[in-house]
Amino acid sequence: MYKSVKLPTTNAATSVFIEYQFQSGETVAYTNSFYHDHFTVTIRTDSGSLLERFSQNIRGLGPFAFTSTRTDWFTKELHLPAGSGVSSVRFDASVNNMRDSSGQSYINIRSIGLCDKCASCATCPSLAKCQVPCTAPRAGTCTFYKACAEETLRCGGSGFLLAQAEPVCEALRSLVISNKLPAAANTFIQNAEQCVQASIAGHLSCDTACTDIETIAPAAVGPCYTSAGFCALTATAAAHILAVLSPEQTQALGEQIAVTSGCRDSLLASFATERGTAGSASDAWMLYVAETYFKTL
After folding, report:
1. pLDDT above 90 (res 112)
2. Which of the chain's ends, N or C, has fewer CB atoms near its CB within 10 Å?
3. Across residues 9-22, what is the average pLDDT?
4. Quick check: is 101 in a domain?
């Protein structure tokens, strides 16, 4: 028995899958003899550069249902890295009936398909958007942007996620590691960034295009930062954070500060207290730029 199916892929697909089941008339009489048929399921790309294979005889397959002589349904996936250029894949399923003709074996195929941002976690459980670090991003890490958001949406190196959001996250993380800021500011950075990532995680779906994320991602900065306590930061901490934000993120934060009661006044009061206490010319300039910006809100 041999079956082969070719499936075109898309740039948005992160993997392909096949759901299959083994069935055999040998499961009762011949499992412990040399009449154990052999099953093979293979997924390969058009170029042959990527390959995933399952090959096993009856003895290694696990339990068959006694009444139906069938196994449970299995799923095999082949990951398609971004930029791999794969245009199609081929699914091959074969059975070698060993030394007999009375106990025939088969492979039943329930479905084949693409795993992309539109696929469900039930169908494609290995999708990035289905993993816990992607559904509930952890504090203190920036891996979410590449491993979760970019892996799902495939916006490319020039897209907002990799070109702006991830570098800003890494710059903020470097601030925490450097211990330049008070402990309260470091806690704020971790909580605020975790909130931003969680907001983006809610949009890793079929309805979100790369153009949408350019608005969604920076817009999350405003409410996440104010709720995490940006308005209570010292002037020095606020200035350092403002200095690494992208223009879109800065605008979103400014708009939120402007409508958050008492936030602007609290920040300006902090700048008035710390004015003239900068330890270096660069810090003094950073404070001046930040204070000037907050005064415009």
Report:
1. yes
2. N
3. 89
4. yes
